[in-house]
């Protein structure tokens, strides 16, 4: 995968995480993953190797506030969108809309298909 593709994927996943947090509020990593799975009818699962590096990057960028609490003898880190902060992924939905518009003609079923003989 090229660097441009990796960056696009990374930004897409950051947008998804921020949208989930903006809708649900304070959540921990496993809850975020479950919310993404539920929202996509199980078609998208974020691995722990993806979700936590993304959450840590969003925290470093100042988009998230965190709270650590002890639950059942273990520490659990909760993530919450920072209020009134310009999100680093705020332009991403526009990028996605443009991509969807560009690819739609290729995804529609065609009544005619070229046949090679």
Automatic annotation (TrEMBL):
Residues 17-79 form the Transcription regulator PadR N-terminal domain. InterPro entries: Metal_resp_DNA-bind_regulator, Tscrpt_reg_PadR_N, WH-like_DNA-bd_sf, WH_DNA-bd_sf. Coiled coil: none annotated. It comes from the Bacteria. It holds the Pfam family PadR. PANTHER family: PADR-FAMILY TRANSCRIPTIONAL REGULATOR, TRANSCRIPTIONAL REGULATOR RV3488. This is PadR family transcriptional regulator. It comes from Larkinella arboricola. The lineage of its organism: Bacteria, Pseudomonadati, Bacteroidota, Cytophagia, Cytophagales.
């Amino acid at each position: 995968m090229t660097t441009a593709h990796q960056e696009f994927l990374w930004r897409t996943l950051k947008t998804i995480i921020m949208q989930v947090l903006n809708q649900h509020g304070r959540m921990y990593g496993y809850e975020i993953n479950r919310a993404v799975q539920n929202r996509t009818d199980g078609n998208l699962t974020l691995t722990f190797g993806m979700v936590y590096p993304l959450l840590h990057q969003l925290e470093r960028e100042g988009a998230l506030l965190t709270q650590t609490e002890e639950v059942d003898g273990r520490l659990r880190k909760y993530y919450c969108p920072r209020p009134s902060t310009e999100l680093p992924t705020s332009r991403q939905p526009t990028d996605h809309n443009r991509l969807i518009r560009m690819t739609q003609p290729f995804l529609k079923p065609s009544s005619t298909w070229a046949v090679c003989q």
